Amino acid sequence: MRGKLTKNQQIAADLRTEIESGALAPGEAIPSEAQLMERYGFSRETVRAGVRTLVEEGLVTTGWGQGKYVREAYPPVIWDWSTMESRRRHEADGSKVGDQWASAVAADGHKPRQEVRVSIVEPPKRIRDLLQLGEDGLAVVRQRVRYVDNLPYALSDSYMPESLVAGTPLMEPRDVHAPGGVLASVGLIQVKYRDEIAVRMPTREEAEKLSLPVATPVAEHTRTGYDEDGKPLRCMVTILPGDRHVIRYEVDAD
Amino acid sequence: MRGKLTKNQQIAADLRTEIESGALAPGEAIPSEAQLMERYGFSRETVRAGVRTLVEEGLVTTGWGQGKYVREAYPPVIWDWSTMESRRRHEADGSKVGDQWASAVAADGHKPRQEVRVSIVEPPKRIRDLLQLGEDGLAVVRQRVRYVDNLPYALSDSYMPESLVAGTPLMEPRDVHAPGGVLASVGLIQVKYRDEIAVRMPTREEAEKLSLPVATPVAEHTRTGYDEDGKPLRCMVTILPGDRHVIRYEVDAD
DNA sequence: AAGTGGTCTAGACCACTAA
DNA sequence: TAGTGGTCTAGACCACTTT
């Protein structure tokens, strides 16, 4: 286990040390393949294998046509889900800008933007189960892309049983906000949420929509909202790239 | 964008389709490099590049000396952090097995185990900030490795200001459990937690300690506990591999 | 035009695992 | 021992970006 390193592992280890020590700073270009070939006297594919290891570890990102760079940290958006759709909180801070995500982004001096698409679908099995829909139950889905300073930051799909929202303003592809979440605007009150967070690599599609660099994992955050009888009203699945988000909860320890 | 695929991308796309359609089932071996070379008539490195793409996406795991396999999903441990150290909840279910993680695992018919190491350290800067320690403040750290059926499932480091716990049983490397968390056993009551969840690729060290397959991201869950005056008492950093955990919160929407 | 990385080939040797 | 993947070489051509 502590034995000799292969050639490509040597290169990876050396570069990793330089990056972690700060000798190679974030945003800085790493040595080109030609430079590494000369420095070590190894063949090109060997050098490439070494660099690839660091790319897979997420320490290095790859540009196009020009160079590879030490990964830079994004300023993360801190997203507090324990107050995110709270009616109380919404009254307290009196924000009218939009939802709390938009408020938090704006408060940091950045420009939030959202695109919304609405459609009626046969939901995937997991959503059907969470919403307790039957085999043939339809759902209205509001699909959002959230941007910060015109960079895509998150995907958010909100599913509601079609029977609950047919004919309401929620069917329109506009931004709708209300204390207690969009459902409150049509009189449906969610009294409890169950949130589940899974961590995984993005699908091809997600990586493309979010312009993710390689080796960027995502959090899949699923919030299911229930009414006072415990009936599920809505299910929101949010894809949060790990390099630009922190998820926060405030918990009472009682 | 919709243009021609390179040879290695063709192989990746074909295998991805077979995996997603179920033609290649989880746990099943994918075709060997020799088979793919013959099937496509491509050179070995080209075939390897195609397969590597799927490994990086997390769809394929790599064994040693023998074959590559379609990734199998672990049965995930669902970890409810909204009740995890609740005093009320602890009284309600009357569990004595250990903490709630251990209870949840045991309830699923699996065998939980923990190893604990205790030491006094100069904490890293992030921990110092969260605990509001000065430049030279020391911390007691309880480092746990949590196992399920003798497989490592999570790393959990709990930092407490040295001044608060010096001379208490918390300095001993034993399992300590109490309603409200270990601190309650020495009379320190946490009334509020702030949890922050970040998503990233594991460090080399974490990957080794947890025996992580390649392309397995982790959640870094940080819980800071405060007393009723808002003073931080403890900071627990838990590393949760994405392939074997789901994080859950129950939230009141008031 | 020069420099970068991406793709591809046709070899070779080695370490590990299963039969 | 046969089959697997891991490492490595010395070439080649191409697409993209910067100067």
Describe this structure in words.
The structure is a homodimer of 254-residue chains. The first copy, chain A, is an alpha+beta fold and 254 residues long. Chain A has eight helices and ten strands. Chain A has helices spanning 7-21, 33-40, 44-57, 87-93, 100-107, 125-131, 162-165, 204-209, and strands at 60-62, 68-70, 77-80, 112-121, 139-148, 151-161, 192-200, 218-226, 232-241, 245-252. In chain A, the strands form three sheets. A six-stranded antiparallel β-sheet of chain A has the order 4-5-6-9-8-7. In chain A, a hairpin with a 5-residue loop joins strand 8 and strand 9 (232-241). The first copy, chain A, is elongated and about 70 Å long. The first copy, chain A, starts with 6 loop residues before the first helix and ends with a strand. The interface between A and B is large, with 48 and 48 residues. Strand 7 (192-200) of chain A pairs antiparallel with strand 10 (245-252) of chain B, so a sheet runs across the interface. Chain A binds a DNA duplex (19 and 19 nucleotides) through residues 6-8, 32-34, 42-46, 48-49, 62-68.
